[in-house]
Amino acid sequence: MRAVNIQNDVGPATSLFIDTIAEPSLSPGQVLVSIKAFGLNRMDLLQREGKYPLPPQAPKTMGVEFSGKIEKVYNEAPEIESFKVGDEVFGLAYGGAYAERIAVSAKMIIHKPKKMSSEEAAGVPEAWITATQALFLVGGFKKGERVLLHAGASGVSIAAIQLAKNAGASEIYVTAGSQEKIDFCVKELGATAGFNYKTQDFAEEVLRLTDGKGVDVIVDYIVGQGYLEKDLRCAAFDSRIVILAMMGGAKTEDKIDVGQILRKRIRIEGSTLRSRTPEYQQLLRDRLVEEAMPRFEEDSFNIVIEKVFSWKEIIKAHQLMESNQTKGKIICVVD
Q: Could you give the 3-state DSSP secondary structure of residue 15?
C-alpha cells in the first residue's frame, strides 16, 4: 500500500514523500480501515523531526487520527461486534494514519454519522478526545467553573471551548496570537473574552474580569516564556492547571512563586494521550460518544477545518501547520 514516509527517517517538511510499504496485519480486536482522510497534529511535526518519543506499539508511519471504511475485521474479540465490513468510521490510533489503510483497535473507532463528511470526521478524534481528557478527567471541571484555554484557535482549544460551554462553564477565556483568532473564539465559538498573548498580560486581564478571583481550570501548552508564572497568578483557589505540551521549550526561565501553589492549593498536572493504554483511551472515546456525538448530530458542535489538502500535497500541509497561522484542523484526503 501507499503511505507517507520521510527521506532519511527524519527531516524538514520537504523530506516527506509517498512511498510503498507493507499492508498492516490484523491482531485480535482490530479492524482494517481503508482511509479516506487523516488529520494533522503538532506531534506529527515533532515525529518528523525525530523529537517525539513513540510509544512501543506505534508504527513508523505518522498520523493518529483518520476516517474511512472498514475493509476487514478480526472476528475473535467481543469489541468487534458493533462493527462490520463496509461501516464508515473515524478513530484514534497510535500511528499509521498517513496511509491508504490502517489496522486499529475497535475500541478506538466510532461510527461516522451520515451528515458528517469524511474530512470533518478525520478532524475529531485527537482534538476532541484530548480536550475531553484535559477538561474532565485531568482538569476535574465542574459546572459553573471558570476556564482559561491557551492557543484558543488550536484544534484542542476549539473543542474545549465548546465542551466547556456545553458542560456549564460560567466563563471561558482564551489566549491567541492575533485579534482575528480572538474574534473567532469569542464571536463564533462563544468564549467570554480573549487576550493577545503578544501584547497583553493575560493574567492581569483574567483577574480584572473575574474581580480578582481567577479561573478554576487552565489548559496550557506552555507556548512561551512566562506562561506558567502567569497561570499561577490568575489561578483561583483549588484550581487545576493541565499542561499538554511544551511549545515554548522543555525548560522555563520564569521566576515561579511556589508560595502561590501552596497558598491557593493549585494542582499542576502534565498529561499526554498517545502514550496512554488502550483501556484509558477507550474510556475517553466512550465519553466523547456519550457527550459530543449527539451535539455533532444536531449541529450544535462545530468542527473547524482550516484547509483540506490532497495527501499528495503533504509537504504544503506540514508547512501550513508550521506557519502557526491556522484556525482549527488541517486535513489530508487520501486520493
A: helix
CATH fold of 2-124+304-333, please?
Answer: Quinone Oxidoreductase; Chain A, domain 1 (3.90.180)
CATH architecture group of domain 128-270: 3-Layer(aba) Sandwich (3.40)
Question: Is pLDDT at 45 greater than 70 in this prediction?
Answer: yes
Residue with the three cell numbers 483549588: 238
**35-39, 259-263, 290-294: range with highest mean pLDDT:** 35-39
Domain ranges of the chain: 2-124+304-333, 128-270
**Which has the minimum average pLDDT: 103-107, 229-233, 256-260, 331-335?**
256-260
Among 167, 213, 208, residue whose Cα is nearest residue 190: 167
Say which residues have a Cβ less than 8 Å from residue 171's Cβ, sequence separation at least 6.
Answer: 146, 147, 192, 209, 210, 215
Instruction: Output the nine-digit C-alpha cell for 67.
Output: 476516517
Query: In the chain, pLDDT over 90 holds for what percent of residues?
Result: 83
Q: Within 13 Å and on the Cβ side, how many CA atoms surround 75?
A: 3
Q: Could you tell me the pLDDT band of residue 249, with boundaries at 50, 70 and 90?
A: low
Distance CA 138, CA 113 (A): 28
